[in-house]
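Researcher: Re-running this chain for the archive, since the previous output was lost when a drive failed. Same request as before.
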Amino acid sequence: MTCLWTSDELVAAIDGRPIGHGPAEITGISIDSRTLKPGDAFFAIKGDTMDGHDFATAAMKAGASVLVVAEGKLPALGRLAVPMIVVDDVLAALEKAGVAARRRTRAKIIAVTGSVGKTSTKEALRHVLSAVGTVHASDKSFNNHWGVPLTLARMPADCDYAVFEIGMNHPGEIRPLVRMVKPHVALITLIAAAHLGHFRNLDEIAQAKAEIFEGLDREGVALLNRDDQRFKMLSKLARQAHVTTVRSFGEGEEADYRLLKSKLNADSSSISANIGDNEVVARIGVPGRHVVQNALAVLGAADLVGADIAKVALALSTLSAESGRGKRHVLHHGDGPFLLIDESYNANPASMRVALELLRAAPLGEGGRRIAVLGDMLELGTQAPKLHAALADLVTGAKVDVALLAGPEMSALRDRLGDNLATEYRADVEQLKPVLLATIRPGDAVMVKSSKSIGFVKLVDALLHEFSAPKAKQKRA
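Model: Regenerated structure tokens:
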């Protein structure tokens, strides 16, 4: 295992007080005893519902090399057979470790935010930059007040590139995070109707996203979507934050990274684009018009950090979708296969449009139907009923044959669809599950989409469990 920190380095970084003989090498940072790996330092963070100090013994048994604990919790911990570093506040200590990791690295750093496409763009950057160097990137969607410092603290000193996802659902959340990250490139994918329950309009969302400019490296670059209706607003906000260089990606002639041509296929896309002074031709291994837009952003960000664009473009061909974000499964039902598109991780009006476009473009088998399995979009506030009802035009425009709906907010879509197509509505995911399993037949294309906490991943899991492989024919004795 590679050494991430020495004990002395970590103690100095977090202003801690060591107890016991610390390990010569710390190979990782963890805040979860369930996923902790031997050699990790365990930071016992106190969250909203759980306190990491309650899992100190579990972390020790899992192989933690050292525990980072709060002074006030020390008496309750007793004598543990593992070294400790005592601090006033564990989350603050994690932030200090993150800042120290940022200070020591020479990596080119990209920070990504936006209403949609953050994680997919971050993962695409991780993938393509791996073709030209060593890359450190956020795990999953570690984009909040603990996820960002944790990702920073885990950053090896010698990586070539680092990619951070920075999220928010309230004003003021991005600012302290990006000031820790200090990126060389700040990328905003798109401003769209997400988290409207906490904002009055899209302009307020744009202003909150623009906080990412405030932490840019002194010579850093803002990279913006030229096709976004709020490009001019974001560009102005970048200048107000003293960003001297703003670059853009998009289809319009004024875009610095410009799409020239694209061909959208059922399982991939092909593009040509102006990247810098060169025309780049690339195949993208994931389908969808939105992926083409993300790929432009990826190529632009890669160019801005000095990566070899020829190698980056070639790496786009082996890009694959993540679980919950468009991953495709060919499953088996009776006499033939059907297609599952897993979009279960999150949902807002913009990403619903994208997912339904993917369903429309999906290939069907003989007699197959397009089945949209849709759950509530959360954090839309008072606009929720209107925005859910407005999905009706997208559903019919995607040539959906069957709509399976669940969740309180989806009742508005059910009412708007009426008798225009075959629709089944249930109150929650558990009630919808048997309906879905009974509806599927060979040749279908099924797309599952909802906000994460609605739990539609259970529907994906049920389909994978029920139809993952052809049932083997039993051999006679």
